[in-house]
Structures are given as C-alpha cells and as structure tokens.
Amino acid sequence: KLFYLVAAAGLCKSSSDARRQIQGGAVKLEGEKMSNVDLLFESPEALTGKVLQLGKSKFVRFVP
Fold this sequence. Notes:
Distance between the termini: 19 Å
Helix content: 25-40%
Low-confidence stretches: none
Structural class: alpha+beta
Strand content: 15-25%
C-alpha cells in the first residue's frame, strides 16, 4: 500500500504520518498527486525508476 511505501522509503517517520501526508496532498508519484492512501502496486517492477516526492524537498527514486 502507498502509505507503507512512503514510510519504508524514509520520507515519513511512521505509516500513520504517511497517511496524513497523503490525505493532505503532500505526496506525488512521478509528479502526479496521490490521494488514495490504500493504493496497491502489483509488483516492485511497477515502481522501478519512478520518483516519489513528499512536499517540496524530499525525493526518492526507486532503483532495482
């Protein structure tokens, strides 16, 4: 789920903080604002090379 991913990437301190950030509109994936907290990704390959952003200054790129 998206909120687990945001927390595991180190962008938030906890999954509940990640939920709040997503609901507040602070999380983007490849420049697209994410609003669905429970968004599922089918495989790790679906995220390879993509950039996850929190706010204006925190970025993480997923690499294999």
